[in-house]
Amino acid sequence: MKRLQNEDNNDLLMMTAAVRIKQFIRTAAVFFFTANSNVYLGKRL
Q1: What's the CA gap between 40 and 18, in Å, rounded?
Q2: What domain of life does the native source organism fall in (predicted)?
Q3: Which of 14, 23, 27, 42 falls between 20 and 30 A from 33, CA-CA?
Q4: Which stretch of DSSP H or E encloses residue 6?
Q5: In whole angstroms, what is the distance from residue 20 CA to residue 27 CA?
Protein backbone atom coordinates (compact mmCIF):
# COMPACT_ATOMS: atom_id res chain seq x y z
CA MET A 1 0.00 0.00 0.00
CA LYS A 2 2.71 2.47 0.98
CA ARG A 3 4.57 1.80 -2.28
CA LEU A 4 1.44 2.62 -4.30
CA GLN A 5 0.93 5.85 -2.38
CA ASN A 6 4.55 6.76 -3.10
CA GLU A 7 4.01 6.25 -6.83
CA ASP A 8 0.91 8.46 -6.69
CA ASN A 9 2.96 11.19 -5.04
CA ASN A 10 5.58 10.87 -7.79
CA ASP A 11 2.88 11.21 -10.47
CA LEU A 12 1.58 14.32 -8.72
CA LEU A 13 5.09 15.80 -8.56
CA MET A 14 5.61 15.06 -12.26
CA MET A 15 2.29 16.72 -13.14
CA THR A 16 3.18 19.80 -11.09
CA ALA A 17 6.63 19.93 -12.70
CA ALA A 18 5.08 19.63 -16.17
CA VAL A 19 2.72 22.54 -15.45
CA ARG A 20 5.59 24.68 -14.15
CA ILE A 21 7.74 23.84 -17.17
CA LYS A 22 4.86 24.76 -19.52
CA GLN A 23 4.36 28.08 -17.73
CA PHE A 24 8.10 28.76 -17.82
CA ILE A 25 8.33 27.99 -21.55
CA ARG A 26 5.32 30.22 -22.26
CA THR A 27 6.83 33.08 -20.24
CA ALA A 28 10.21 32.61 -21.89
CA ALA A 29 8.62 32.53 -25.36
CA VAL A 30 6.72 35.77 -24.71
CA PHE A 31 9.85 37.43 -23.31
CA PHE A 32 11.97 36.23 -26.24
CA PHE A 33 9.36 37.41 -28.75
CA THR A 34 9.08 40.80 -27.06
CA ALA A 35 12.87 41.21 -26.96
CA ASN A 36 13.11 40.31 -30.66
CA SER A 37 10.36 42.78 -31.52
CA ASN A 38 12.18 45.54 -29.63
CA VAL A 39 15.43 44.79 -31.46
CA TYR A 40 13.58 44.71 -34.79
CA LEU A 41 11.78 47.99 -34.06
CA GLY A 42 15.08 49.52 -32.90
CA LYS A 43 16.69 48.61 -36.23
CA ARG A 44 13.73 50.03 -38.14
CA LEU A 45 13.99 53.33 -36.25
Answers
A1: 32
A2: Bacteria
A3: 14
A4: helix 2-44
A5: 10
